[in-house]
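ok trying this again, last paste got cut off
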Amino acid sequence: MRPIALLLSLALLQTPAALPPTRDQLLSLFGSYFEALRAQAGIPGLAAAIVGDTDIIWEQGFGQQDIGNNIATRPDTPFHFDGLTQLLTATMTLRCFEEGRLRLNAPLSDYLDPTPEPTATVAQLLTHTSGRPDNLSFSYNASRLEVLKQLMPACYDRTFRQAFKNLLDRLAMGDSVPGPDASLGTLPPGELATTPADQQRYTSVLARLAVPYAVSAQGTSGSHYAVTTLGAASGLISTVRDFAKFDLALRQGILLRGDTLVAAWNPPIGANGLPLPHGMGWFVQSYNGETVVWQFGSGTNASSSLIITLPSRGITLVLVANSDGLAKPATLTAGDVTVSPFARVFLGLVAK
């Protein structure tokens, strides 16, 4: 039996069906199995949090954020969140729609000229789809989201990065930075307004950033982050503890109306009449009859991230790592989160 299958089997057999595990026992299982999976994947450092309806119910750091200096990973260790950045971008875009400043099904040419995809709609960018409404096709391509940055000034009367910063500030995400270059003093004039306190905080967070590593059959070696600025789908620096604040605000209706979030988590229908893999900002699929909403991020030989929400249970898992082991070798772009061993353990324990 493969190691991951053995782990999950042991987890499910931990207690008899008549005596389901208590919450504390279940959370202890997460720590044990995530640590085993981290070691199996060769991930140097991993941070995890499980978020309930009102707060974090479990958090833990695994391994090392800095091998050379023997610094352990903690829940407040900053990481590159890579593709999870797009969840904030999607939220800002959907909020713009709620305020009547943007139509999701209008062609981009209505707002931008020129634009690389004039006939594509905002909804199609967010769902990674293209084609006629009755003949949509899906292809995950995070770079298409970059054009959404150009819509932010009309939505918020400020630059994309400034709107992004304001969202972080609103949620008191004090260990988060709007791009790895936010404290360098090299940004174009007017792109980001900060105070000396902001700059000091950004510098402090970036100084604690997890060291990136490349992991291969030959071993583990120091690497570098390829992402150097804030994009629509990459560049957020944060912690699992901070990102939980965003998740809670989203699910509690603070950032978006309930009907908007339901629409975002309802994927479009393809030409074959079946749901496509991606909603507006999030992947959406079914597992054991219930909806799973998720997203991932990956920086080659440097970082990876994964978020999984079970809306019916009011629970979210957030994982970040300082190698690409959370998303490699899993082909998550196809839209099936169960190819991830971490996701299988989480779903096997929570949604069995």
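PB: full thing came through this time. Confidence is low (pLDDT under 50) at residues 1-18.
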